[in-house]
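Hi D.,

Good news: the full-assembly prediction came through. Inputs first.
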Amino acid sequence: MNTLIAIGVLAVLVLIAEIINLRKLVIPMTIVGLLGILGYTVCHIDVEVSYYNNMFITKKFSNAFTSLFIALTIFLVALSKDFYQTQFSKIADYISLKLFLLMGAICMVCFGNMAMFFLGLEILSITLYILCGSDRTNIKSNEAAMKYFLLGSFASGIVLFGIALVYGATSSFDIAEIITITSQGTLPIWYSLGVVMIIVGMLFKIAAVPFHFWAPDVYQGAPTLTTAMMSTLVKVAAVATLYKLSFHLLRQMPEGYTTAIVVITILTMSVGNIIALRQDDMKRLLAYSGISHAGFMMMALTALSTSASNLFYYAAAYAVAGIGAFTVVLAVTKGKDNQLIQQFSGLGKRSPIMALVLSVSLLSMGGIPIFAGFFGKFFLFSQAVDNGFITLVIFGVINSFISIYYYLKVIVTMYTQNEVTEETQITVPLSYKVVGIAAVLINIIIGLCPSILLGLFK
Amino acid sequence: MENVIEIIGIEKYIYLSIILFCIGVLGILYRRNAIVMFMCIEIMLNSANMLLVAFSTFHQDAEGQVFVFFTMAVAAAEVAVGLAILVTIYRNIGSIDIDKLKNLKG
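Then the structure:
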């Protein structure tokens, strides 16, 4: 709770700094503040308390994810300075929106009451609609914002209807009470219907396959930094919330649910990867690869009681790799109006550091050993094998191979074509270099000692 | 005092909410005017509100009605943002027809 309040105060301070004309201080202040809050959260990771009549519950699971969100926000804020260079007068708005989005994400993983969950979801979505459309004169950004708004509010409507039905069946919004009521006696049919609607709404948010069609368009059209936020912070927050909801609500569900989840997981992994093969736009490629990664993360839903640490590890590995990849996309496509893969050609000569960052990030996403992505996949697969989901693992392995193909395509483009002309010369700002190298280092460190993250749940 | 829900029956409220919800969903899927789509989203949210209020009376529990206030506030904020997005689109292309937004393809 203190974490949430501190972030709220920080966001208001950012807005005040705008009023008293201290815009230059906004980013350093936010980064220092967030680092302090991150330290506080990590130190109190074992504290399990509930606040305000179980509205807000901190547990190891939610504390760990809160820390991950804060760390990701630090990276995204650090990238903001150079990204919003041309709109520096609005910097305080963008930073405070990012902080409010972080608050929404934290409410989503720490909820103890359906009201808190819904509010968190909406805080996250509404700030994201604004950030998507923040490039006002660009019609692509407008279109992305509109599409995301329509689909996002559609999903929120479904979630809300689901919450109403669950309330009707259990006469409570409190998760603990809902669990007690569902464990004793039979429930009206509304309960299952409501839970299915909540889950479907969340599947929209994580872009799982029957509900994924909005993601590539929105990712492509939104400003690149917002895309980075969507594909790392928001996706991880939505998956964690889906996991927590399933953990609490799906205990009394019939066998058919597991089958449905397995089918959706396989579809999400395969469709995302197969469509990604023929993309030539980097942001769309990362969008489809994000869809398939959502599928991998959904594997954790097949073993709800044991997979929290594996999910956290995979989410952290994916998000860090995503930050690295998007940092390079930001650096390379600065001032260009498309993000075609050809723009990355010869990057190995033009900027060796950025090429290295992108290679490591993509290889980690593909699951090459020593990088964190490999162990993330390994833990999820081995846990699925232990629980007897062999088909799921076979599809997972096949998909890992497919994904390596298109990641390697980008890497090959970077290192083979080497005409360096005046036009293609790029200057990479210091902040991008720092963030990129930090992301690579974190990736390798958690890849070499996975126990750092897995130990948090022991 | 006799409960109005007992006279009418909770099922009828549920059916009405589901019908309203489906009207909202179909409207979003079939209409192409952005304003009408916004109205359909409102219908979806309000059908859920009505269901919450009906269940709240059914269970004799005030929590559901409090939740409705949250939902209304959230819906208002959402539509405010949506209309702002719509205004920026209108400034750029001079139309609010969703079918004219076809710049993003892969």
